[in-house]
Amino acid sequence: MSSTAVGCLLSPLLPRPSSTVAAAGCNCKSRSIRVRASMSSPPPPVAEFPYLPPAQRELMVEILSMVETGLGPQLLPSTVPSDVLSFQNPSGSAHGAIDIRHGGRDSTVNFILESWLHCQIPTGALNIATLLVFLNSSTDAPHLLMEFMQGSPTSLVLLLDLIPRKDVVLHPDYLDEFYHQTDLDKQRQVLSKLPQVQPYMSSSIYARSLLSPTAIAVDINCGDGKEQTLLEEIIRGKLNMICKEIVQIWLRLCVKTRLSSEVDQDILVKRDSLIKSKAIEIDLEANLPRMFTPKVASRIIREIKEAYKCIDSGN
Amino acid sequence: MSSTAVGCLLSPLLPRPSSTVAAAGCNCKSRSIRVRASMSSPPPPVAEFPYLPPAQRELMVEILSMVETGLGPQLLPSTVPSDVLSFQNPSGSAHGAIDIRHGGRDSTVNFILESWLHCQIPTGALNIATLLVFLNSSTDAPHLLMEFMQGSPTSLVLLLDLIPRKDVVLHPDYLDEFYHQTDLDKQRQVLSKLPQVQPYMSSSIYARSLLSPTAIAVDINCGDGKEQTLLEEIIRGKLNMICKEIVQIWLRLCVKTRLSSEVDQDILVKRDSLIKSKAIEIDLEANLPRMFTPKVASRIIREIKEAYKCIDSGN
């Protein structure tokens, strides 16, 4: 069930509409609605999250609410067409939703991509939910990636990382500022000590290279029996705490950090551009046609390519 | 027992003298001696390997023989002083041996460092054996690292990697040439499938950053009982095959590869220099004084710093 892990650059996660939120017992409804309301637009289809189990859905909603509250004023309204905001394959066995919004003038945000994908597979269902916040070249602070990939009710792959924008071997100060001083590895260690948690490694070596040395890339496997409850407990407990802590660190440090004069902006832009194009090649072009048919996939990929190409405002 | 994993840049491994080799039943005696003989110098103390279990010692000897046969004509004689070639702490509970040789004119080798460290610890003994071949700036091909760290008779940490010289995210062609086309990940996968093998993660996030996405960084743990035999079987079986295959790949590709005109040599030299200085700071300066007393450690570190500073011949 494992995606290529730049699976990263495609998939879902967003605040669900108030009715769904209420049904799942989530207490962040008011915040979610406030953020949306301030943008004068209704929740997009990506916010529905119809297939995720309650614990994942609630965590996704809370994380999205945190990020949207933090970035809210910086984000422009979505211009994603309706047949990309929500889509399915001809047989109806695969569904998906994507939303992309760009950062406004004076924002450090290039774009925020939220998505979810659901499809039937021989062993049940595959659900991928992704949040990606790509910053622009006005800052060299890390991008944010959070992704859930679930292929069975009792297991879950989680990718959560502040993706470095620079070669950290050549820039130990960068590593120190964003990864060491923030004590990010502590969060990874807490999770890795659970007996159900194993490291997860993408099949793409380029995707592996993108991640920071403190990345959380784990496969949480609670067995083949009735351990769905155990997985939910882990998600509502340690995972919830760790995800929020890391996203808070990113919001605190990364959205405000500006470029120092020493940064080579050409390399920064080239590096970001490579990450985007390789992600499309490795993840989307390799997987979406199989899940949604080539016709549907090409529509989705075209929209994402357009978003990725969008001029880096780099104020 | 785990070292910092740029533990990497300090420790041992070399062909033992003929008597020891014969006692351990190793069949590479003649090759080893041939290489040494061609350099008109007797085996240095690092070649003794008095503390390693037979299976590790034999593998180390074979690997060193392969590397020395491959690089032989490129290497200059050692100039390491006798009190660094072999040393111990005042109480005699810790012993070590290091040898460093530089590459000659027209060589792609900057230096080869071989070392072993042994010290008593509360749970028994710690043995670290290292081979590091650092290339010079006449090529951007990866450096070679192989390290065994053993803190109990039934467990072993292995680091084996072609250490990238460039930011692989910015240079996907580099990743493709040295890591993808060589199918290096296949070797890692074979080892990772053994039930005794777990991923190993250095406590230093800088050390983690140095490794390639196909690095073998594993903790082989065969339990607390009488599973010493099992560990030896793994070392003589899969580990032996995998280590040799990877070192062969490195010898084939890396020592011959020359720089393309597009490479920024200033960045290459700066990056290599940072790796060296951070390795000394993270690994040697943090650990050697505790193992050998500050006085002995300072002598060793001074010699290694001199070797690291040695002018990059970058022909």
TrEMBL record, chains A, B:
InterPro entries, alphabetized: RCC_reductase
Gene Ontology CC: one annotated term: chloroplast
An example Gene Ontology biological process: chlorophyll catabolic process
Pfam family, one: RCC_reductase
UniProt GO molecular function: red chlorophyll catabolite reductase activity
Highest taxon in the source lineage: Eukaryota
Protein name: Red chlorophyll catabolite reductase
Organism annotation: Zingiber officinale (Ginger)
Taxonomic lineage of the native organism: Eukaryota, Viridiplantae, Streptophyta, Embryophyta, Tracheophyta
